[in-house]
Amino acid sequence: MMKTGLAMAAAVAALWMAAGCDDAEPVNEAIRIEPNSVALKKGESATFTASGGYDYTWKLKAGQESWGFLSTYSGPEVTYTSLYDPGAATSAVQVLTVISTIPDMHRAATNAPGNPEKTAEAYITHITSGVSL
């Protein structure tokens, strides 16, 4: 039984390397977004970069999608542009989330379903155009 598991793991590793994945960066335990917070006025943009995983997907908190837009919904980097002016409230915080599905070689070797997902959040503070930064 032990030899079968090792043979399966070796086969998966060989396929991984044959597919050109031998130069992939190692996966860290935590996904990160840089910067992790910004303050923007309506019309301003900020670029966020994710690290520590693979196959990044970006999303805005439900109900806040109309506050601005993302340049893309996948990849390690995204630019967010604010369309929101909180007016008399002077500020409002929006949550940007990145999700990374991390290939798990142990799951592949044992035919276990699914891959773990890791997430990270960044915070976008929308400030009224009357406030100076």
CATH architecture: Sandwich
Helix tally equals 2
* Overall tally of domains: 1
The top-level CATH class is Mainly Beta
**Kindly state the mean pLDDT as a whole number?**
79
Radius of gyration: 20 Å
Order of helices and strands: HEEEEEEEHE
Stated plainly, the CATH topology is called Immunoglobulin-like
Distance between the termini: 64 Å
Number of strands: 8
In spatial order, strands of the major sheet run 1-3-6-5
What summary fits the major beta sheet? 4 strands, antiparallel
Low-pLDDT parts are 1-28
Q: What portion of the residues fall into strands of 2 or more residues? A: 35-45%
What overall geometry do the principal axes of the alpha carbons give?
Answer: elongated
Q: How helical, in percent, are the residues? A: 10-25%
* Classification by helices and strands: alpha+beta
Characterization of the model:
This protein has one domain: Immunoglobulin-like (Sandwich), CATH 2.60.40. The protein contains 2 helices and 8 strands, in the order H-E-E-E-E-E-E-E-H-E. The longest helix has 17 residues. It is α+β, with helices and mostly antiparallel strands and 133 residues long. The N and C termini lie far apart (64 Å). The N terminus is likely disordered. It has a 4-stranded antiparallel β-sheet with strand order 1-3-6-5, with no helix packed on it.
What are its keywords?
alpha+beta; 8 strands; Immunoglobulin-like; single chain; four-stranded antiparallel beta sheet; 133 residues
Q: SSE layout and pairings?
A:
Elements: H1 2-18, E1 32-34, E2 37-40, E3 45-51, E4 56-60, E5 68-70, E6 77-82, E7 91-101, H2 105-110, E8 117-127
Parallel strand pairs: 2-8
Antiparallel strand pairs: 1-3, 3-6, 4-7, 5-6, 7-8
